[in-house]
Amino acid sequence: MKKVLAIILGGGAGTRLYPLTKLRAKPAVPLAGKYRLIDIPVSNCINSEIFKIYVLTQFNSASLNRHIARTYSFAGFTEGFVEVLAAQQTPENLSWFQGTADAVRQYLWLFEEWDVDEYLILSGDHLYRMDYRQFIQRHRETGADITLSVIPIDERRASDFGLMKINESGRVVDFSEKPKGEALKKMQVDTTVLGLNQEQAEQQPYIASMGIYVFKKDVLIKLLKEASERTDFGKEIIPDAASDYNVQAYLFNDYWEDIGTIEAFYNANLTLTQQPRPPFSFYDEQAPIYTRARYLPPSKLLDCHVTQSIIGEGCILKNCRIENSVLGVRSRIESGSIIQNSLVMGADMYQPFAERQSDCERRSIPLGIGANTIIRRAIIDKNTHIGCDVQIVNKDNVQEAERESQGFYIRSGIVVVLKNAVIPDGTII
């Protein structure tokens, strides 16, 4: 794996994840109480013994830069690194990144300097655990110029993805972007070629791209240099290359979730609380997910009722009820509050006198969730000040709303309270 360079794409403005992306890049969005989305592909790389990792970003990259600088340091032990490359203008190129392929093209001068055989292109906003060594091994064994990681899917979900057809050797021969009707039927393939058994192949007769690619070094350089008008890997570069190059499919038959929308993000976090075993687990000792070490005190639960939930470290919970929820680091929940089916991201700091008494008779609203507050089916971003007797329950069952001046949005019926928002005592959402 010393001959592999990993390039993680930070994504665009993240409009479908707004307002979580209002103040941060998509890969910097918090996940599972203590991680960030970028920790997933970086940890997969480290566990696969790939230590040369670049992260390409364009929007709101300050918190992502800070997280990576504090978390990933291989100094003195290896030539490895995790380094952020932000979009920049040069005398030769005055435009910002125009797409996934254009982002890599603009830094090709840097990537070319490395003595590697393959470039591994990854997305920064997926939740999955994958050993890239097997992926790259398959790429080398088939003599492929490009290998795509694909997942088998059923007909119900197939039209939401870019699909492909393969021949009996696993070579990709056709692409179709989100087909429907007859066009969808034409994209059925025999997935036993990629390793599924007959029963699985009948249930999942389509294969969809995961947005994860491995290129031979010289092939990627040639494709990017000869067609500067092609700006996207999945829609232009790879489909156009299929006729002239050996493009192979590699089957990944495990949990994978594209966290591109508020609803997908919410569901991915809450499924982590499932028992006896969630579809994705952070408890795998063979392939751990790394993140920043914060050295926080243990969480303190004082007379609480907690069921099927995840509680991050450094939390203070007083006489409250938590059901099927995820609470991030330094969360503070005051007495009498009820949190159900929600994601509370916690805080970046403690206020002075963090172990103070619960108090609703004060001039300002402190960090955390005040007494006698009810929160259901919501995402509470970091550093929020939520007062006493607040109800965040979407009482009118609104599906979409923009109330930024009031500190919240509603997306797919999920209330999203903005980072640093202040919700006054007695507010009902």
From TrEMBL:
**Can you list the GO cellular component terms from the UniProt entry?**
carboxysome
One of its Pfam families is LbH_GLGC
List residues binding alpha-D-glucose 1-phosphate.
G162, E177, K178, S209
Entry annotated with the keyword tRNA processing: no
* Residue span, Nucleotidyl transferase domain: 6-274
Which keywords does UniProt give here?
ATP-binding, Carbohydrate metabolism, Glycogen biosynthesis, Glycogen metabolism, Nucleotide-binding, Nucleotidyltransferase, Transferase
Pathway info: Glycan biosynthesis; glycogen biosynthesis
> Mind telling me which PANTHER family this protein's record contains?
GLUCOSE-1-PHOSPHATE ADENYLYLTRANSFERASE LARGE SUBUNIT 1, CHLOROPLASTIC-RELATED, GLUCOSE-1-PHOSPHATE ADENYLYLTRANSFERASE-RELATED
Provide the protein name. Answer: Glucose-1-phosphate adenylyltransferase
Upper classification of the source organism reads: Bacteria, Bacillati, Cyanobacteriota, Cyanophyceae, Nostocales
